[in-house]
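Troubleshooting entry. Yesterday's outputs looked truncated, so today I'm pasting the complete records for two proteins to confirm everything comes through intact. If either block looks cut off, that's the bug. Protein one:
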Amino acid sequence: MKHTILICGYGPGISHAVAQRFGKAGHSVALIARNAQRLTSAVEEFAAEGIQAWAFPANLNDIEEMKLIVTEVRSALGPIGILHWNAFLDIEGNLLSTLPSDLSKSFEIRVTSYIAAVQACLPDLKAHKGSVLTTSGIMALSDPKIDIFATGYAALAISVAAQHKATRILTHTLAPYDIHVGEVIVNGFVNRTPGGVGKNNTIEPADIAEQFWKLYTTRQTHSIIFGATIPISETVAHE
């Protein structure tokens, strides 16, 4: 039996491609995002492709609301065997112009809600030796070239770095339960997303989704860097 994949933070880029990849492999797909109309359109599009997907509109910053939605997903679709965390707050600006409240919101969605979602799905993940997959970005890593690039994306950089650390800790925390944790660190702007508009050498979402599929099916590697937009030193640590 192929268990449900719960995709938190559905959008037109990476998460859409992940839903397609896992849906075509026979997994039921549960989509969570704030935009109910976007979710409805996605479900219709997936249905036309023969993919079973369901929409669950919710504010992922609201922990209690998210817990209720996880319960609804479990009741409607059965055990949640895969959690894909793709939620983030798209904020540009440097540390002198970014509002402190935006820094807090960015951290909350990248870390606090992320961990809360893992906790909410934990009974299913334990029972079925499931997987936690998370979308990360190159600004999570420490390297002079990355830090220079990140000056214009302060909230994103700080929150994704915290998420990356949380994911590495989760890898060890969940290992005794045979729950696999997999992270794709995207090094570049993604095609079909607002951030990719007008950018050269964008990365195709389907290619990123394929990396998630490999992480999920092999259950060997925990973190990979995909893309080469920012040249980074060979000393940057990753698995």
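Protein two, checking that the full record survives here as well:
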Amino acid sequence: MTTIRYNPYDFAIHEDPYPTYALMREHAPLYRNDDLDFWALTRHADVEAAARNHKLYSNSYGVTLDLWSPNAKKRSSFISMDPPEHSHFRALISKGFTPRRVAELEPRIRDITRHHLANVLDRGTFDFVTDFAQAVPVDVISELIGVPAADRNRVLQLSNTSIEREDGSSDIPPAAVDATLQLLTYYGDLIAERRVHPADDLTSALIAADIDGERLSDSDIRAVVHLLGSAGNESTTKILANAWYQAARHPVERAKAWAGAIPQWVEETLRYDSSGQLVARYVNADATWYGTTIPAGSRLLLIFAAANRDPRVYADADQYNLDRYSPGHNSPPPLAFGTGPHFCLGAALARLETRIILEELAAVLHEDYDVGQPRRVHHGNLRGMASLPTTVKPR
């Protein structure tokens, strides 16, 4: 009998979760962890079906085990709501992320990327994450929500601290709690400033908007801005570092990227090593999977990263292969940003930023770069790097 131990807060899992995911998919497609009191699904069809069924599998307690609460929406607003309430909030906020508005950001994203890239090109060796990759997304999302340039480094450091967790524990460390409270205070002050002096940013738009004749409260706006600010930084930064690291480990695929397959580089990284590993759901009624009943009131993890390596859906699923997203191939898009009504609102922006930044890197750097030992971010839902030494050569 195969013994499987899966704890999303285990630092060893963070180093490489994929062998454990494979065991879960094959031997425990419905996995149970008694110590942390959760169930988990890992097969692609199961994860996708559950993610689309918001009536049975709800966001109402939040999407992480460490912030699990019946009052989750007070902290994280629309991400902890279900339709139809969720739909009203999402429709409002999505005005800042329409396809046209996102596409219009491309020139500015390129300018920001080139500025930060110029700061490291002459050094040869630098930290890909701390010296470069995290700077671009934080500038982009800060401009969208209205964080002044002078405050961005502080906001970035607080955001990084707020997501760190301790080995094996779902408890939130005191430093992370303090960082989160400081961020919420900061965004509260920003909202107060924008009420007096509106600007052309998303915070001002949220203040001015109404939902069915009702205005958003300051606490709702603060929760939304906090969510967008944190997610806008964390998601893209981690996708970038994962792409850079995986291409270094797979030089044949790296050559394809340098030959022009940048969009495929983005998509295959999202599938092979997604920054968003999983989400939690509250089970509204008894649900049966594989002959076992998950009782109403349970906590269920949908492990998107495991689904993205399911060999039932992806040929040679454990191989990093950019060709699977080349024209003429029919690989399904990765579940990196979820699916269904809770599909990530910023997915198009994250894809655009990642593509542009990788294009700019490939344009000025030789493909034969090296990476050192990464230092992992430790969080139950996220996979990425806090540090990644790299050595490059200009073209």
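Both blocks look complete. Sanity check on protein two: The first helix runs from residue 11 to 15.
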